[in-house]
Sequence to fold (315 residues):
Amino acid sequence: MDNNLSTGNYFRNESWDRLMKCRILIVDDEPHNLNILRIFLNSLHYEIITVEDGKEAFSMVKETAPDLILLDVMMPEVTGFEICKQLTAESDFDIPIIFLSANAQKEDILQGLRLGAIDYLTKPFVLDVLERKVEIALHQKAKVKNLKKDNKQLAKLVYVDALTGLYNRAYLDITIRMIKEGTKKFQAAMMVDMDYFKDINDNYGHLVGDQVLREVATIISSKISCEHDLAFRYGGDEYLVLLQNEVNCVEIADSIIKAVDGLKVSLAPHKSQEFSVSIGLTNNFDPTSFDQIIMQADSALLGAKNNGRHQIKIR
Fold:
C-alpha cells in the first residue's frame, strides 16, 4: 500500500491549501447533525454553510456557489433526491453532491447515484471516512475545473495565429458562418498590408520580419474594440479587420497607419528602417456575400498600393 494512503496524506500536496479554502454547503433538517458536521469540517478549515430547509437549499446554492454539497435524503417538503434531481438537471451545474442518509438500502444508494451524486454515505457516518470522501470530491472537482480551463486554452490556440496572436483563417471560417447566420454583425472591413515587407526580410532577416509582423498586429489590436471588432492574420504580411461600427472606420485606419509610422524595431547597429502599411477599406458590408466583401477590401488595398502605398483607399 502507498505510504501516502496509509498515513492519510494522499492529498496533502501543493493543492492542499486550495482545497482547504473550499466552501461546503450542508443541507440537513436535523440541527444536531448540522452542528456535528459544521464543527468537524470547520476544524479542517473548510468554509461551511448550513441549511435546514430543503427549499432554501436551491437559493443558497445560487447565492454561495459552493464547491461541494452534503445533502440529507429524508427531509420534509422537499427530499434530498428531489433537490439533487432539480440541481443536476441544469446544464451548467457542476457541483459534486454527496448524500448523507440513514437509509442504507441498496435501492436508495443506487437511486442517489443515478440522480448524479458522486457518493452516498450512510448515517451514523465515520468522521475520518467523511473527511476522505470530502477530500476526494473536492480534488476531483479541482481536476475537472483545470481540465476545462486547459481545454478552453487549447481551443483558443486552435483559432489563434501563433506568430501574431491574432485570429487565424480557421476562426475566420467560423466567423463567416456566424455572419451569414446573423449571430455576428459587422459594418466595415479593412485589409492592412505591410509596404515593402519583402525588403525587410531580405535586408534584416526573417526574425526581424517576424518581429515587425507581431508589432503591427499589436498596433491593430490596440486601435480596435476588443469587445466588438475582430482582427485576423489573413496571410503573410496581410491582416483582415472586421469592424462592428462603420462610423469611425476611417479614423481607425488612419490611427493604424500613424502608429506603424512610429514603429521602432531593433535592427543591426547603425541601421534604421521606416515601416508603413497600406489599407483597403469597404463599408459596403453585405453579410450574404462575404467573398464580395473580401474582394472589395482587396480591390481598395490594391488601389492604395498602386497609388503609391502608405495610404487608405475606400471601396
